[in-house]
Amino acid sequence: MEYRDYYQVLGVPKAASAAEIKKAYRRLARELHPDRNPGDADAEKRFKEANEAHAVLSDPEKRKKYDELGANWQAYQQAGFDPNQAGDWSAFGGAPGGMRWRVHTATADDLGGFSDFFRMFFEDGPMGAGAAGAAGAPGGVFGDLGSFGTSGRSLRPAQAHGTVEVTLAEVARGTERTVALDGRRLQVKIPPGVSDGARIRLRDEGVTLTVRIKPDPRFKRDGANLVTELPLSLPEALLGAEVPVPTLNGKVKLRIRPNTQNGQVIRIPGRGLPKRGHPDQKGDLLVTARVVLPKLDEEARAEFERFANAHPQPDPRHAH
Fold it and tell me: Is the pTM of this model over 0.70?
């Protein structure tokens, strides 16, 4: 069988701390993940080796046993040990007398990709989460590794789920969040243009986060476009004006043309949200004019009546 030096796989010294092992594993997992190296068989092989090494060295008890036996994992197979039976490992050099190990077998087809010995016990977790599932009941080679399914071909650890809230302004520029989940504090990058309900998968952590966008009192979202309303006075709508309009990046001046109608939509290009997958391209800001009519006193009403009589308007109910 093939013996692997797990310290060498992760690129750390044998005296490395738990934090150094975790840091080295995460770096390799990001670098070698199949999503980043499609079709690269060597990267996929090294990715699985890193998962296998981390599964052992990250657990103090497993690491202690691995350090005790070292290369004698290889002697285990060469001696023709029956994996369906418990046995005394003291004959394989370095193991304390009387230490007995219970093993549970799984086919190579079920757990392909690991070294020959560990193929009996582990498979990499879904999406490279770095978790290893036990191929048997508690009392397997490394004891109980948690609640993992054992039926069929898939042995996958349960995913942890959480929610992260962001504002529209953060959607516009992208942001980071520190999320506390299952006793862990995770730093999460939220990409620009993310949509409400989008799921962010932290493959190395076995975590899926659902993005929720907080309501904004000024804007509604329509894909990459933002929609807002702009109150206008009657003189501004009739005569035209320049008025300030809020955006996610401060206010801009908008020119209102004369005779702007109530409900008319004015488009401001490039003032919306980044388009998903194309952060350099942005949607538009759609401004709906809302004309606010003045309240007239008796004198103003009489003056407006004279104006209306002098300038009769077509019946708007029959204008079209």
Answer: no
